[in-house]
Write a structure and sequence with these properties.
- The complex is a heterodimer of chains A (about 240) and B (about 290).
- Chain A has nine helices and ten strands.
- With about 240 residues, chain A is an alpha/beta fold.
- The radius of gyration of chain A is 17 Å and the shape is globular.
- Chain B has one domain: ABC transporter involved in vitamin B12 uptake, BtuC, CATH 1.10.3470.
- The longest helix of chain B is centred in the N-terminal third of the chain and has 34 residues.
- Classes of the chains: A alpha/beta (about 240), B mainly alpha (about 290).
- The interface between A and B is medium-sized, with 31 and 20 residues.
């Protein structure tokens, strides 16, 4: 049984159909990447999984259970952590508070324990440790992304959804970030990664799906896909 | 010397009056931050709190502090009802339908109270059984003193609650980014409900405190709400500290101007202050232009 499975999912933004029958699956322990151009429906796919957008047809299964009609709060409690596009750091809360709130899906964990876990996150992301007491909006884009991932990990998710973590970041920071993603993955985390930076994504992923205008057009092991001529031409700039 | 004492006396009354504005303004701001909507029934929360006191204390003759507690519990329950009756059904709509909804609620509440209690204003007992104390020629009325003490206590509690508890942080997170809060598993509907309860209780306390000074009447909430709204703009729209400072400032301006210039224009000074702020510092004392960051 796959940890996550999408069966022929369609969804709409108002009258616009954003997903036109998407099927994919993520096995426990895998790092799967979802590639595609702007507007292909990658972010919508993640939002449909985390419940921000409701699937109109098809089904979304998490650990074998349908979560198609489940709200985002409840899905977070089931163990899916969505780090959305644009980081969405709470601007008026401090870095530490942002991290602490990442555990809001876990009931009855003592504050002390959460503070300890927050300290552990600062070990994974030493770049943001000096800004522990600074307000979220004062961070740079790269620091905000680190914070967003740290906050996402506080949920102790079974599945981590990462939406365009490299967006708007300098190449060196992207390298750094992907090294951390690789490290998190080595720790046993299952990750579904949406990226426009196909080159970086294919380097860390086990498998990849390629989306175009609401449908999946290609899929396969990451190392195979990175050798495919079409993919090279369309996404890898060669 | 006498002039100094007189001014201090007026300042004291101004701060007490300003405390009432501050409490109602704080209620305004908490709801603005949580829902992005100005609650036009905010003043009526104070009116309801005062009538709750009239019911439990004057009519049912319960002991004062029991009646006070009962009025606050009633306000808390009312906060939940208000959320689910006035805000919740419209939460996915733009601000305008919600705003109209709160305006309708205000009219409904005033007329319901009118039907139950009649048009005659009701007197309300002071919190303490003493007139007040005299310190070096300045007379401190016991009710004004209680207003100040209770307000300081409530502001301190609000600060501790919002800044030092995870629940307070979740409430803040909800007001800053609802979708992200939901993605983290924060129960957003519950958070908004808590905000309405808190805001209704704050309003209720303000009403009980000001009741002995103003007489309890159907329209008492409207004038308080107007001043409190002016206070939120002067302090910086949506800013918690601004609401408190703005409220106190308005109370002081109003009292000093009434004493030195003319009493009949008492209500006008607050709005004159509002005009001056709108002309020269429209973002308010603590407001700043919000900068978007990638």
């Amino acid at each position: 049984m796959a940890l996550l499975e999408l069966r022929n999912v369609t969804s709409h933004y108002g009258n616009v159909q954003a997903l036109k029958g998407v099927s994919l699956h993520v096995e426990a322990g895998e790092l799967v990447t979802l590639l595609g151009a702007n507007g292909a429906g990658k972010s919508t796919t993640l939002k449909t999984i985390s419940g921000l957008v409701q699937a109109t047809e098809g089904d979304v299964l998490f650990e074998g259970q349908s979560i198609k009609r489940t709200g985002p709060e409840a899905i977070a409690r089931l163990g899916i952590s969505h780090v959305p596009e644009g980081r969405r750091i709470f601007p008026g809360l401090t870095v530490r508070e942002n991290i602490l709130l990442g555990a809001s899906n876990r009931k009855g964990v003592p504050r002390k324990q959460l503070e300890k876990e927050a300290d552990e996150k600062f070990e994974i992301f030493p770049e943001i440790k000096p800004f522990s007491g600074a307000l979220g909006w004062t961070l740079s884009g790269g620091q905000q992304q680190m914070l967003a991932v740290a906050r996402g990990l506080m949920a102790k998710p079974k599945l981590l959804l990462l939406d365009e973590p490299s967006l708007g970041l300098a190449p060196l920071i992207v390298q750094n970030l992907f090294a951390t993603i690789r490290q998190i993955r080595t720790g046993g985390m299952t990750i579904l990664l949406v990226e426009q930076n196909a080159n970086m994504a294919l380097q860390v992923a086990d498998r990849a799906y390629v989306m175009e205008t609401g449908v999946i057009v290609t899929s396969g092991p990451a190392d195979e896909l990175s050798q495919t001529e079409d993919i090279k031409r369309a996404y890898l700039g060669g | 010397m006498q002039i100094l004492f007189d001014n201090l006396q007026v300042l004291f009354q101004g701060l007490a009056l300003g405390s009432i504005y501050a409490l109602v303004a704080l209620g305004f701001v908490l709801i603005i931050r949580a829902t992005n909507v100005v609650n036009f029934a905010q003043g009526d929360f104070a009116m309801l709190g005062a009538y709750g006191m009239v019911l439990f204390f004057t009519t049912l003759a319960w002991p004062y502090w029991l009646a006070f507690g009962a009025a606050l519990v009633a306000m808390a329950i009312f906060g939940v009802l208000f959320n689910y009756g006035v805000y919740y059904p419209l939460r996915h709509r733009s601000f305008l339908p919600v705003l109209i909804s709160t305006l309708g609620a205000s009219i409904f509440l005033q007329n319901t109270v009118l039907a139950v209690f009649g048009p005659q204003p009701k007197p309300l007992e002071k919190m303490l059984n003493t007139d007040g104390i005299n310190i070096g020629g300045i007379f401190l009325d016991s009710q004004y003193l209680m207003i100040l003490i209770v307000t300081v206590a409530l502001v301190a509690f609000t600060y501790l609650f919002f800044e030092h508890t995870l629940l307070g942080k979740k409430l803040q997170a909800t007001s800053q980014d609802k979708d992200m809060a939901r993605l983290l598993g924060i129960p957003v509907a519950l958070m908004i409900s808590i905000t309405f309860v808190y805001s209704a209780v704050l309003g209720g306390v303000a009403g009980v405190l000001v009741g002995p000074i103003l007489f309890v009447s159907i329209g008492m909430g409207s004038i308080i709400a107007l001043k409190a709204f002016a206070a939120t703009i002067i302090g910086g729209f949506g800013d918690v500290t601004g609401a408190i400072v703005g409220g106190l400032l308005l109370g002081v301006i109003e009292s000093l101007a009434a004493y030195h210039i003319s009493v009949p224009y008492k209500d006008a000074y607050a709005f004159l202050a509002l005009f001056i702020f709108l002309l020269f510092r429209p973002q308010g004392i603590f407001g700043e232009k919000v900068s978007e960051k990638a």
